[in-house]
Amino acid sequence: MLSKSLVFVFCLALFAGGSATAQDFEYIGATKCKMCHNKPATGQQYKIWSEGPHANALKSLTSEKAMAIAKEKGIADPSKDASCLKCHSTYARIDQSLNISLKEDEGISCETCHGPGSKYKSNTIMKDQAKSIENGLIVPDEKLCKECHNEESPTYKEFNYAEAVKKIAHPVNAGN
Ligand code: HEC
Ligand code: HEC
Ligand code: HEC
Ligand code: HEC
Q1: 8 Å CB contact between 116 and 29
Q2: How far apart are CA 83 and CA 55, in angstroms?
Q3: Which distant-in-sequence residues (6+ apart) come within 8 Å of 154 by Cβ?
């Protein structure tokens, strides 16, 4: 009897938790965003990202500086070590069962800050912020940045949100 009611409660919990969770949204990778977000007239977000720190975050783990940090910590290859990849690679951060086409070498990719794009990626949804959010879009904030910009980073520099956002700015109207 007890087990039967437990099963019932468990099913209820599953049912309640099953609707509109992050589980519905999958990672499509930056090249998919590029199709619509690389036009000079609307700001070339892809180009700006690819030349910025986040797209190159994985590459940094092969630099001399990275090797020196790793050596001190007894890590053989920082570009393969989970304790570094957790902040330097979107690919390493995500549940691979939700990965449709995000590539391993993307560094910190669009979808870390904007959410997995499989459902919001169409023109009609993207033009409507509320609908985009329903379909997995995340509006990035300071808290999100601090998942990585914190004292656990071996090279931590004080993080000033207002200034940091300016450094990586990629507004839609940049080409105007
Ligand atoms: C089919 C075209 C298309 C694709 C693919 C696409 N977008 Fe968009 N996106 C748009 C359009 C259109 C807008 C509305 C703004 C504009 O007019 O440029 C937009 C707006 C946005 C915004 C601003 C949303 C807001 O209201 O705050 C973000 C952030 C964004 N896109 C990120 C992404 C990311 C990340 C991807 C890839 C996972 C992506 N987009 C893929 C067309 C697209
Ligand atoms: C998933 C981890 C992660 C998140 C989330 C993240 N960053 Fe970063 N960020 C990094 C890493 C790693 C680097 C270093 C890249 C390199 O040089 O290899 C970096 C570098 C930077 C830099 C250049 C270095 C500096 O400190 O001046 C800026 C600016 C920056 N990030 C801003 C932001 C902002 C703003 C947000 C939130 C909107 C954000 N980041 C969210 C991981 C992250
Ligand atoms: C908690 C998140 C986090 C972890 C874990 C992390 N990093 Fe970083 N890393 C960052 C951020 C954020 C930056 C940008 C600079 C800063 O620390 O503010 C960065 C920058 C760097 C840079 C570029 C620094 C420069 O200015 O040239 C190197 C190299 C680096 N990290 C190596 C490593 C190595 C090696 C490991 C693993 C031992 C590691 N990181 C673990 C978040 C992290
Ligand atoms: C480190 C986090 C981070 C990454 C990586 C990132 N963005 Fe953003 N993005 C932001 C922030 C922060 C804003 C500003 C949000 C705001 O103004 O409220 C933004 C704004 C945008 C906007 C809206 C601009 C506007 O003027 O309304 C678009 C479109 C966009 N990003 C697309 C992309 C695409 C495409 C990629 C990958 C090629 C990408 N972003 C990568 C953090 C990020």
Answers
A1: no
A2: 19
A3: 69, 73
Q: What is the pLDDT of residue 15?
A: 44
Alpha-carbon distance of 151 to 153, in angstroms, equals 5
How far away, in angstroms, is 84 Cα from ligand 2 center?
Answer: 14
State whether the beta carbon of 52 lies less than 6 angstroms from ligand 3: no
- Provide the phi-psi class of 86: left if phi over 0, else alpha when psi is between -120 and 50, else beta: alpha
Contact 88, 107 (CB under 8 A): yes
Task: Tell me the two tokens of residue 168.
Answer: 């990586």
Q: How far does the centroid of ligand 1 lie from the alpha carbon of residue 126, in Å?
A: 5
Distance, CA of 89 to CA of 106 (rounded, Å): 7
Q: Residue 127: what are its φ and ψ, rounded to 5°? A: -70, -15
Looking at residue 24, its pLDDT comes to 84
**Nearest CA residue ID for atom 42, ligand 1:** 123
